[in-house]
Design a protein that fits this description.
Blueprint lengths: L1 E5 L8 E5 L10 E9 L3 H8 L8 H4 L5 E2 L3 E9 L12 E5 L11 E5 L3 E3 L6 H5 L3
Length: about 130
């Protein structure tokens, strides 16, 4: 799948378009989302710049060899993990806040914990919904 990644932290020129593996089957509380829109917020800028300091061991915990950035997004549920059942279903349009220690929303697909997901309001398009979290 296509994604925007950071291989080395620094200025905006460090953002690279790459083909990376699609996430695997969702486990536990995860759902697989087909990303339709993502937002850019201060945490994304800090991550890219290598100055994110909310977790003292953050840079020891990020995915390697590259990190797909992007924290908030909106999309369509493709698959649901075994513990993620409830009010959401495959095909639902949703918006969410991801985790900074997992791959982000600047990709075609993303695994996200269902507990940080909500149905997209019908009066918002995907771009507007991605800006909500």
């Amino acid at each position: 799948m296509k994604a925007i990644v950071v291989e080395e932290y620094g200025n905006v020129d460090q953002l690279k378009a790459r083909n990376v593996s699609r996430p695997g089957k969702p486990q536990g509380y995860d759902i697989l989302i087909r990303v339709k829109a993502c937002s850019v917020n201060p945490v994304d800028v800090k991550l890219r710049g290598g100055i994110y300091d909310d977790y003292f061991d953050y840079y020891d915990r990020v995915p390697r060899p590259c990190q797909i950035i992007g924290y908030d997004g909106a999309g369509i549920i493709e698959e649901i993990g075994p513990d993620a059942g409830g009010s959401l279903n495959v095909g639902d349009e949703i918006y969410y806040s991801g985790s900074p220690i997992r791959h982000g929303s600047n990709a075609e697909y993303q695994l996200v914990d269902v507990r940080s997901v909500a149905k997209k309001p019908n009066n918002l398009d995907f771009v507007q919904a991605a800006a909500m979290p």
